[in-house]
């Protein structure tokens, strides 16, 4: 078994970024993906580079804060205030695919301008699963930038298999429990037990980080992030992974 443990939302606040970096240097986090349109991304990218973290993914985003592009350029995917809708289901079905592609590409280009290396794409709130057209747009970008993408299609039976059919590198399995807002050790150990003797490449995605008052004002996940970080810093869990011959990798190694 090869295992990617990915920390979503790098850059949402500097404290979350600080926690993710700590988890990558001292714990089990092997990769992360950045919210590039966050006002904290620029500082967070500098923090990562200074810590020797040179590659990560982009957490492509259409549901948090404001777009990179002017709201007038992406009118079909923003509300009256010029900000993104908060959930994929609120994005109008009549959205303009050209506007979506332009915004997502702007996020990727801003990421590359930071000096970081792009090693995969995934999406905030799983927006790639909104519909088949949205998934196609993200897959087009993965092909254009020649990077892997998260296997979100495994969470949507009607879209399952499209990423593999497109020849895009990915994991064999994405594991998460949508009913629980944070990683739980019994569940995580169960995933390890299920796949430890297989050749599967598995991703476990979580939301580790340090919480602060700013985070409370912008995110529904606050204390849960500190819970995730503590779990992924647990040396007993690292011992368990090593004892069972599980190989920790990043998306850079796909």
Automatic annotation (TrEMBL):
Cofactor(s) annotated in UniProt: Mg(2+)
Do you know which Pfam families this protein is assigned to?
A: YdjC
- Top-level taxon of the source organism: Bacteria
Q: Does the keyword Magnesium apply?
A: yes
Q: What is the protein name given in its UniProt record?
A: ChbG/HpnK family deacetylase
Note the Gene3D superfamilies from the entry.
Answer: Glycoside hydrolase/deacetylase
Q: Which keywords appear in this protein's UniProt record, sorted alphabetically? A: Carbohydrate metabolism, Hydrolase, Magnesium, Metal-binding
* Biological processes, Gene Ontology terms: carbohydrate metabolic process
Q: Which InterPro entries match?
A: Glyco_hydro/deAcase_b/a-brl, YdjC-like
Q: Which GO terms describe its molecular function?
A: deacetylase activity; hydrolase activity; metal ion binding
